[in-house]
Design goal:
Layout (H helix, E strand, L loop, with lengths): L2 E6 L8 E5 L2 E5 L2 H13 L2 H21 L8 H8 L7
Antiparallel strand pairs: 1-2, 2-3
Protein backbone atom coordinates (compact mmCIF):
# COMPACT_ATOMS: atom_id res chain seq x y z
CA UNK A 1 0.00 0.00 0.00
CA UNK A 2 1.48 3.38 -0.94
CA UNK A 3 0.40 6.94 -0.34
CA UNK A 4 0.29 9.12 -3.42
CA UNK A 5 -0.21 12.88 -2.92
CA UNK A 6 -2.81 14.52 -5.13
CA UNK A 7 -3.94 18.07 -5.58
CA UNK A 8 -4.74 20.21 -2.53
CA UNK A 9 -8.01 19.40 -0.78
CA UNK A 10 -11.19 21.18 -1.90
CA UNK A 11 -11.91 24.43 -0.09
CA UNK A 12 -14.69 22.95 2.03
CA UNK A 13 -12.49 20.25 3.55
CA UNK A 14 -9.87 22.47 5.15
CA UNK A 15 -6.22 23.11 4.37
CA UNK A 16 -5.18 19.44 4.23
CA UNK A 17 -3.13 17.52 1.73
CA UNK A 18 -5.22 14.82 0.06
CA UNK A 19 -3.61 11.47 -0.75
CA UNK A 20 -4.71 8.15 -2.24
CA UNK A 21 -3.98 5.27 0.08
CA UNK A 22 -4.89 1.71 -0.88
CA UNK A 23 -7.81 2.72 -3.09
CA UNK A 24 -9.13 5.23 -0.54
CA UNK A 25 -8.81 8.99 -0.56
CA UNK A 26 -7.42 10.33 2.70
CA UNK A 27 -6.45 13.67 4.18
CA UNK A 28 -3.33 14.33 6.19
CA UNK A 29 -4.38 16.21 9.32
CA UNK A 30 -2.38 17.34 12.34
CA UNK A 31 -2.41 14.69 15.08
CA UNK A 32 -3.82 17.18 17.60
CA UNK A 33 -6.79 17.84 15.35
CA UNK A 34 -7.42 14.11 14.88
CA UNK A 35 -7.42 13.63 18.67
CA UNK A 36 -9.82 16.58 19.07
CA UNK A 37 -12.22 15.10 16.49
CA UNK A 38 -12.04 11.71 18.21
CA UNK A 39 -12.88 13.35 21.56
CA UNK A 40 -15.79 15.22 20.00
CA UNK A 41 -17.10 11.97 18.54
CA UNK A 42 -16.87 10.22 21.93
CA UNK A 43 -18.89 12.99 23.61
CA UNK A 44 -21.46 13.61 20.86
CA UNK A 45 -25.03 12.41 21.25
CA UNK A 46 -26.25 9.55 19.04
CA UNK A 47 -28.52 12.03 17.25
CA UNK A 48 -25.63 14.38 16.46
CA UNK A 49 -23.51 11.47 15.20
CA UNK A 50 -26.35 10.34 12.94
CA UNK A 51 -26.75 13.87 11.58
CA UNK A 52 -23.00 14.07 10.91
CA UNK A 53 -23.06 10.70 9.13
CA UNK A 54 -25.94 11.86 6.90
CA UNK A 55 -24.16 15.13 6.10
CA UNK A 56 -20.99 13.20 5.25
CA UNK A 57 -22.87 10.81 2.94
CA UNK A 58 -24.54 13.69 1.09
CA UNK A 59 -21.24 15.59 0.80
CA UNK A 60 -19.58 12.49 -0.65
CA UNK A 61 -22.51 12.01 -3.03
CA UNK A 62 -22.26 15.62 -4.28
CA UNK A 63 -18.49 15.24 -4.82
CA UNK A 64 -19.07 11.94 -6.66
CA UNK A 65 -21.69 13.55 -8.90
CA UNK A 66 -19.45 16.58 -9.56
CA UNK A 67 -16.66 14.23 -10.69
CA UNK A 68 -18.93 12.79 -13.36
CA UNK A 69 -20.11 9.83 -11.30
CA UNK A 70 -17.00 7.64 -11.68
CA UNK A 71 -17.85 3.98 -11.20
CA UNK A 72 -21.55 4.89 -11.21
CA UNK A 73 -23.91 2.61 -9.35
CA UNK A 74 -27.66 2.25 -9.63
CA UNK A 75 -30.11 4.56 -7.90
CA UNK A 76 -31.22 1.69 -5.65
CA UNK A 77 -27.64 0.94 -4.61
CA UNK A 78 -26.94 4.60 -3.80
CA UNK A 79 -30.19 4.93 -1.86
CA UNK A 80 -29.33 1.84 0.17
CA UNK A 81 -25.84 3.20 0.85
CA UNK A 82 -27.13 6.62 1.90
CA UNK A 83 -29.68 4.98 4.21
CA UNK A 84 -27.09 2.63 5.68
CA UNK A 85 -28.69 -0.59 4.45
CA UNK A 86 -26.21 -3.38 5.33
CA UNK A 87 -27.48 -5.56 2.49
CA UNK A 88 -26.72 -2.89 -0.15
CA UNK A 89 -24.19 -5.02 -2.05
Amino acid sequence: MSAQPTSPAPRDSGPYEVIHLGGETAAIVPLGELRRLQALERHASPELLEEADMETAFTEYRAWAAEGRPGAISHDQMTAELLGDPGAD
